[in-house]
Amino acid sequence: MNKRVGDLIYWSIEDLETTKEKLHEMGFESYIPRNDYRSAMIKTLRRVLKGDDRFYRKFKDHNEGVFFAVVQPVVNEEDYDIDFKREVVIRLDKKTGSVEYRNKENASEEFMERIQLEYEHAQITIDSTQFRKIITDVIKKDCFGVSLRKSGGIYFIDEKFDSTREKLQELFSAFPGQATLSSVPIYNDKGTEDALEEATSKDIFSDIEIIINELKEKTDAGDITARIIEHRQVEADKVFEKIQVHEKHLRLKAETVKTRLMSVQRLLKDAIDEATVTSPEAFMSELKKL
């Protein structure tokens, strides 16, 4: 009798909204966004202005804060022309989340109150987009899930992570009609083993290439720093953990994948000397060889 090796999982999420508190109670506290003031304000403005002629623009983002403008188009029917009137400027403090309304002479108190109430609501809730990201993060980070499609959406989870998969199913069960998680058991027959070898090797090679390409982009732009390299070292270590989880599924491709990753890890290790990139030129030269 063939042994179960894991599950294929995929999900459907409708127009869902829940609270951060509920996710915390269900054991997903480490994945709840914290101090996500900027995304809360963007979510707020999208909701408030949905179906409205007005629109918003983020026009400044630095240490002082993030600045948004709400703009009203003004159509001149006689000249067949259009102009734009600033309704209000919103300054968001990235550290505290406090909001200041500036240049507000064209905005009604009711409109600004609506923004404020929606913003306060957005800070304590999770919408469908955020919920999907939490699910994907749990699958990738906690379960070292392997994507069976380049665009994601269907993942293989090894049977050793059954407890996390069951925890996810409990989470989805809390939102009947809004969210559905499907889980299909996978057994170790010849066809499955061949498919898993192909899928895991492609997925892990893709993880490695993402690290390499990010390093090349930063180096080409002259932005490579010891901090960036240290972050990529952490990512490479996580990829190594993923290889260990899926070594039996990688089969003969395990050594090839390991060799590729080790060449990246060795380059990253050699590149840093006392928190300084020793030679950006040499680093780029070695990158091109990978």
Distance between the termini: 43 Å
Number of β-strand runs: 12
Q: Please state the overall shape, judged from the principal axes of the Cα atoms.
A: globular
User: Order of strands across the widest beta sheet?
Assistant: 8-9-1-10
Taking Cα atoms only, what radius of gyration do you get, to the nearest Å?
24 Å
**Number of helical segments with 4 or more residues:** 10
Unreliable spans are: none
Q: Helix- and strand-based class?
A: alpha+beta
The amount of beta strand, in percent, is: 15-25%
Helix fraction by DSSP (H/I, runs of at least 4): 40-55%
Helix and strand succession?
EEHHEEEEHEHEEHEHHHHEEH
The pLDDT mean sits at: 91
What's the story with the biggest beta sheet?
Answer: 4 strands, antiparallel
Model description:
With 290 residues, the protein is α+β, with helices and mostly antiparallel strands. Among the domains are: 37-126; 191-289, no CATH class. Helices cover 50% and strands 25% of the residues. It contains 10 helices and 12 strands. The protein has helices at residues 20-25, 37-48, 109-124, 128-142, 162-173, 190-220, 226-245, 247-250, 254-271, 280-289; strands spanning 4-13, 17-19, 55-62, 65-76, 81-92, 99-102, 125-127, 146-147, 154-158, 179-187, 272-273, 276-277. The strands form 4 sheets. It has a 4-stranded antiparallel beta sheet, with helices on both faces. It is globular, with a radius of gyration of 24 Å.
